[in-house]
Amino acid sequence: MAESTHSGGDNRGLPDNPERNTPIPSRAATPGTDGSQPPGTSKGFRAWVGKKYDKGKAKVERGMDKADKRVKSLLDRGKPKNEGEGEATPQDAGGSSKVGAIAMGTFRTALVIAATLVPEPFKGPAEALLKVVDVIEKVDSNKEEVEILKKRCHLLGSSIVGVVQGKDTKLLSKDLRDSIGRLVAGIWATLETANKEKSTGFTAYVLVEEDVEVLKKANKSLDELLHCFWIENHIAGTIVLADILSAVQDQAGNSENSTLDRLKRVPGAAYDSQAVAARIMPCFEGTRSTLLANVGRWMIGATADGHNPPLYILDGIAGIGKSTVAITVAQRASDPTINCLGATFFFSRDQEDRKTSLGFVHTIAYQLARYHASYGKAIAAAITSNPEALDKVLSQQFSLLVAKPLDSLLRQRATPLVLVFDALDECVEPDASAVLTLIISSISQLPNVKVFLTSRPELGLRSKYMGTPNANIFHLQEIEDLIVEHDISLYVNYCLSPPKIQEALGDSYDTCWQPTAEDKAKLAKLSGKLFIYASTAVKFVLDKQHLNPKRQLASLLDLESHSPHSLSKLGGLYLYVLESAKPDENAVNWLSQFKMIVGAILVLQTPLSVMALASLLVEEQGAIKSTLGNLHSILAPLGEGSALTYKVHHKSFPDFITGSSCPLEFQIVEQEHHLNLAKYCLQVMNRQLKFNICQEA
């Protein structure tokens, strides 16, 4: 990737203060008022009351009644009217409770909606909060902190509306209702301290507008509440922040500092690098929602059991979707409106610089330096004052380049900074164990930092992280079958819909045929808990070489009945793809070509284009393409023309084809192909090297 590749996004849209990282539109609308302006009171208080408190009470009740009716009409919008009746009511049988379009309006409207949705024990705070809302919205003051408070309330209201607008309130998840409830309870606790009670016949609230320190504290608390609500629901996929904020304050970007270029980072390890993005796709929309909601709650410290460690470890078997979850968390955490992603490192055993620990700390330091200008200055100063730190052992590198320079800055943060590390098991030993020790003992101990880590449960690593009390460990294969089956069904139904089949096969697709709901359900069930199975199966069905999706799907659905019982579910699929690609005629020649080509692809440290591979193996490019023509579901062709390159679709395929469970006719023996590769290289040198090859005089 280019020099600009990093995990934290650029700094446009970042506040000047890294600890105050909730962006507020510079011209956010202030909710209007109805009726006369509230009269001033002595001692700097503003009370929304009339000359007599009994009149004020009546006005409060009328205001709440109007808001309740307005929200009721929004909830009723789109409901069928009963015959012979006027407006349908929420109790109408069969009626929809979908929230209609709502202008991003008053805080009150949002809170009345929230009061109808949140469960106990949040209903009390929601109803109490309505009593102070008008004080905030109607106060007439030009003081900066009062204006900030009103804008915060406007954004909070818009955020609540944003998560329910256009949705059927009957179908809102418990997670979302609880999230709204926690937000409302937090707002109530904050605003209650910024108001004083005054009682004459009934309770009225007045804003302490002259007490700047109280208002500043309230604004900071609202910042934290808003930011945590955004993080939790953006990670869970229940809120689209771009629809809520039309503009984010511009900020000056990071100034370039040549000192940071001394960090030997690994650009391809960032979640948004070409190397990672080309091979790992984010979660399909609507899938993994429960897991992502759990991760969102962990980030903000709102876990159900109260256990909120700084480290979240997601482990699971190959192909179950760990990396997909990791890149989804990274993408959503990096959204400019919440901007809580500090750094990422995606390990890969296929890339030399991503399978060792050599560039790990340098990469984290560089990405954090680019996260915010103040972080960059601190890290650059550390390099300048202690340049030998660049070459210290891993733990000292981290202490001198990251922990000590950033400690005070991280302590000032109102919300956590998230670091995402994927596929630690693909890092070679002893490096992987050293990195895990660093994560557990140092990285996750940074103030206001949360670390999200994925790995296969390899014995050496598992024995280390299972014993730590500071980790939330989730075994992905233990997720409920019904949840995974539902997620995979969503994916299969989308990929095998007529428009997607047409897109994949073009004019060769016979639109008279489409998979039945029963067939798609069977394929989802065959996938078990393995998303890679579903992905490979879909690629096999839509293979452009076969151009017969009906036959391909039918053969897959019959797979379980004739797959060897000694093979895993995924191994059985890989074997079936290989057997389907093997021609009936000249099978021996094809197998010889297959082993030579696929063996070279697997043992090469850096993938070669078809043109370069053909030159190395002394083969025709056409022979390589034809041999791999029916294997696109497991060996993905990337690029075009002279840049066409075949890469392994998923690391579980090399595990299968080099393992003992693979039949001998397809099995690749790595040692043999390493030796063959060395011979090919010597042959190239023998053909092309000559005396005075540069033809110097």
UniProtKB/TrEMBL annotation:
Residues 1-97 are annotated as: Disordered. The keyword Coiled coil does not apply. Keywords: Repeat. Pfam families: NPHP3_N. PROSITE patterns: NACHT (PS50837). InterPro entries: MLKL-like_MCAfunc, NACHT_NTPase, NPHP3-like_N, P-loop_NTPase. The keyword Repeat applies. This is NACHT domain-containing protein. It comes from Candolleomyces eurysporus.
